[in-house]
């Protein structure tokens, strides 16, 4: 019996929550701030570095080349959240568009990304939809390439996600 009129206890079995699965996803995303097909748009370009927000709709590809097979998009936003180093707070959805099991499913990531840190950067998976409903896990980001003139970059992603 619930102690509040707005809540109810549910059975995990009734929600079809069976054994949890662990899935590893690997791909690249392309953050394009310049060029003919911009996918990252600064919302307040006159701001200094701290507080700058950028909306993204970045392609996810199987290989680091932009013309390789597209499997989805990274949609959301990031902002510079540190006054002392270049660290983003990111709220993004990995939206899968390729035909197959993951089509129209999402993985949601929210956390701090110190983009200039050497090596692998880790952020939490906080949810998902479709196949990735009730998702939790982590993402490893590693900068594959970065153009200091345009700000365009390619990031290698490994997502380790628990889901039902």
TrEMBL record:
Its main location: secreted. Keywords: Apoplast, Secreted. GO terms for cellular component: apoplast. The keyword Secreted applies. One of its GO terms (biological process) is phenylpropanoid biosynthetic process. It is found in: Secreted, Extracellular space, Apoplast. The keyword Secreted applies. Dirigent proteins impart stereoselectivity on the phenoxy radical-coupling reaction, yielding optically active lignans from two molecules of coniferyl alcohol in the biosynthesis of lignans, flavonolignans, and alkaloids and thus plays a central role in plant secondary metabolism. Homodimer. Belongs to the plant dirigent protein family. This is Dirigent protein. It comes from Linum tenue. The lineage of its organism: Eukaryota, Viridiplantae, Streptophyta, Embryophyta, Tracheophyta.
């Amino acid at each position: 019996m619930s102690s509040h009129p707005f809540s109810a206890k549910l059975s995990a079995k009734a929600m079809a929550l069976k054994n949890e699965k662990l899935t590893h996803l690997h791909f690249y995303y392309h953050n394009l701030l310049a060029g003919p097909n911009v996918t990252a748009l600064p919302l307040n370009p006159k701001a200094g570095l701290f507080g700058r927000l950028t909306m993204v709709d970045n392609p996810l590809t199987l290989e680091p080349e932009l013309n390789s097979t597209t499997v989805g998009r990274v949609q959301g936003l990031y902002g510079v959240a540190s006054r002392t180093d270049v660290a983003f707070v990111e709220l993004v959805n990995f939206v899968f568009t390729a035909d197959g099991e993951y089509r129209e499913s999402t993985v949601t990531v929210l956390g701090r990304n110190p983009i200039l840190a050497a090596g692998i950067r880790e952020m939490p998976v906080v949810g998902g939809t479709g196949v990735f409903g009730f998702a939790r896990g982590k993402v490893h980001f590693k900068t594959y390439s970065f153009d200091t003139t345009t700000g365009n970059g390619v990031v290698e992603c490994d997502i380790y996600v628990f889901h039902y």
